[in-house]
Structure formats: C-alpha cells, structure tokens
Amino acid sequence: MVGLTASDVPPTLAVKIFSAGVAACVADVITFPLDTAKVRLQIQGECQTSSAIRYKGVLETITTLAKTEGPAKLYSGLPAGLQRQISFASLRIGLYDTVQEFFITEKDTTASLGSKVSAGLATGGFAVFIGQPTEVVKVRLQAQSHLHGPKPRYTGTYNAYRIIATTEGLTGLWKGTTPNLTRNVIINCTELVTYDLMKTALVRNKLLADDVPCHFVSAVIAGFCTTVLSSPVDVVKTRFVNSPPGQYTSVPNCAMTMLTKEGPLAFFKGFVPSFLRLGSWNIIMFVCFEQLKRELMKSRQTMDCAT
C-alpha cells in the first residue's frame, strides 16, 4: 500500500523490542482499570467477611471501586504494571520472531506451527523469570484494600518491593512463579501464535491487506482464544500471589481449596473483564506495535538516504 513501503524491510531486533515495550505500555495505561476489576473479581470469595464489598460484573466493579476507594484506585499498581510491560512484553513479543528463526529447520522455507509454538514457549518462559517481581507487586497493590481493611499493606510500588523483600525474603518477589509461568506460556503461545497465524491467513488469502483492519481482527481472535485457555491458571495465580504467607501450602493446594470451597466456576471468575482486558489490550498493543515498527523503519530509511 502507498506509504507503507517500510513494511517490506524487516525490522531490526532493537526496533522490535522498543516497539513492543512502548506499545505494551500504551495498552496497559488504557486498559489498566479492567485489569484491576479482573483482580478484584478473581479474589472475591477468598476472604469472606460480613463487611466485605461484593462485586458483580465489570462495570459495577469499576464503579464501586471508584465510589468507595476513589478513581485513583483503578490505577493502583500501574507503575509496577508498566515496569512489567517494559521487562516482560518487550522481551516476549520483541524476541518472538528472532527466536522463531532458531527453530526453523533446513527443510522449512517458512516458520512451521511447531517453530511458532516453540518460540512462544521460549520467550514467554524467559520473560516470566525476569518480570515476576513486578507481577507480584502489581497484584498486591491492586488487591490490598479488598482483603486487608482500611490499613493497606503497602503505601506504594517501591514500598511494596521493600516490604515483600524484607518480610518474605527475596524469594517472596518470585512468589507464584510456577502458576505465572504456566499462565504466561499459555498466553504467549496462544496470543502470539494465533495472531501470527490469523494475520498470515488473512493476508495470504487476500481477505485483508497487512494493515490496521487485519491487525485488529487478528488481535480480537487472539485475545478471545487466550482468555479461554488461560483463565483458570490466571485465577489461581492471582489468588496465590496475593495470599499472605501460610494461607496456601502450594499452588496445587490453592487450586484444590478453590475447587472444594467455591466449585469449578471459581476458576473462571473475572472471565468477562479478562476478555475485555486481553481483547482490548491485544488490539491496542498489536496495532501500535505494527505501526510503530513501520514508522521507525521509515525513519531509518529516510536517515540512511539522507546520509
């Protein structure tokens, strides 16, 4: 298409990582209230008290939070969320294409489904170990008022890092790595592979050009598939990460406690906000990511021509 000739030039690794980090941060800022609503709905039922506020539905949860705790509470944990995206999304998305090349055999002319899945597993797993402390702090800040009354456990992002490290040890910052690793491997594989396959199919079959509408449709489908597969693990991860020391003996114990006390539907608590969040996050992130890559490559071509 006119004005998109830079799409023919493969973006460099640095461009991919930078574009992924920026796009993920933009998506996080816009969709963060939905993520906070998701966390509150997921932990509901974990601590039953007579004065506990009950949330019903996405919009009611957001409205209740804004009324009872102030609009700023919808963005509690945002700094940790942005730190998470910079360390996590930039790696898992930015490195995806590069890692994928290592799994392509000599017989393959293009990336197979196996190489795509392998790349998703590798980049997702690596990113979790780097970004897990930011995930722990984000979830704790989003959930703290619901479980711990008027006196919060943490006064801010860096206060949370310090208190967790001093009271629970450095390993406390990597609490819930196992369920988060499982969750993010599922999310990374489903999200990136589905998006990649959908975009390739739409362009190859000439249903849509490699532009914003194509990226939009691919992102919506990827978001829905990802939410369905990752929701049970996501709920267990949120419960375990947010729990005080000693509440659950292990991740399987957390899952079994949920199952026996609340039933199987507990694993899909917060599904609607999860889909709204993942769907909208995917749309914003992938569209920004694709456009930012192109603009950066255009700028680079212009600078090369000028020199």
From TrEMBL:
GO terms for biological process: proton transmembrane transport. Belongs to the mitochondrial carrier (TC 2.A.29) family. It catalyses: H(+)(in) = H(+)(out). GO terms for molecular function: anion binding; transmembrane transporter activity. Its main location: mitochondrion. GO terms for cellular component: mitochondrial inner membrane. Solcar repeats lie at residues 11-102, 111-201, 210-295. Keywords: Ion channel, Ion transport, Membrane, Mitochondrion, Mitochondrion inner membrane, Oxidation, Repeat, Transmembrane, Transmembrane helix, Transport. It comes from the Eukaryota. Coiled coil: none annotated. Most probably functions as a monomer. Binds one purine nucleotide per monomer. However, has also been suggested to function as a homodimer or a homotetramer. Tightly associates with cardiolipin in the mitochondrion inner membrane; may stabilize and regulate its activity. This is Mitochondrial brown fat uncoupling protein 1. It comes from Hexaprotodon liberiensis (Pygmy hippopotamus). It is found in: Mitochondrion inner membrane. It is a multi-pass membrane protein. Mitochondrial protein responsible for thermogenic respiration, a specialized capacity of brown adipose tissue and beige fat that participates in non-shivering adaptive thermogenesis to temperature and diet variations and more generally to the regulation of energy balance. Functions as a long-chain fatty acid/LCFA and proton symporter, simultaneously transporting one LCFA and one proton through the inner mitochondrial membrane. However, LCFAs remaining associated with the transporter via their hydrophobic tails, it results in an apparent transport of protons activated by LCFAs. Pfam families: Mito_carr.
